[in-house]
Amino acid sequence: KQWYLRCVGKQWYQRRVRGVCVLLLPSVATLYFHMWETDVKCFVEEVPDETMISGKYKVEVYDDKGEQFVNKEGIGMHVDIKDPEAKVILSKYYTNEGQFVFTTHTPGEHHICLSPNSTRWFSGGSRLRVHLNIDVGEHANDYKQIQAKEKLSELQLRVRQLLEQVDQITKEQNYQRSREERFRFTSESTNNRVLWWAVAQTSILLLVGAWQMRHLKGFFEAKKLV
After folding, report:
1. What pTM, to 2 d.p., does this model score?
2. How much is the pLDDT for 122?
């Protein structure tokens, strides 16, 4: 079973492959989802290049006796991240709670897939609850750590946050502009193809009509009807 969750604008939607399941949630927010040990959950982030993405997760296992989700050692998570060209950016095993960070180098859709490190292949195994928080751009930075490391004042830290926000907005605008250019090029190319196809169809019809008229004229002359 494989699931996809995509971030579009400021909305999340979750789609189950070969099923019907839609979930709308605010973007850049903590969420949780349920999965089995043999499941794979994939998330799609459409971002510009040179953008940092940070993800924090926590895995809980359902306890049948206590009828609740609890922390359990031994259940880890494998994180597999691919860029728009299907190149692997990150592929690593983590424990039941961890964080992954990577920087994009190609604009477009990046696939983030999570799968438990279960040895079960045929049965569903235990039911899991995964808490996940994905931050993009300047939201992925730990400003408290940056402030302590570089010994910045509150004003200097705020100025840095604003500069990084402006930089991220610029990247988003450039990415949207490039997408618009690709879309315009595709539209113009499609329109040209449709136009030339219509011209070709009209030309073929005219040629076929002329050939038929010539053939009929020869037939009538051969029969001495004209």
Report:
1. 0.65
2. 53
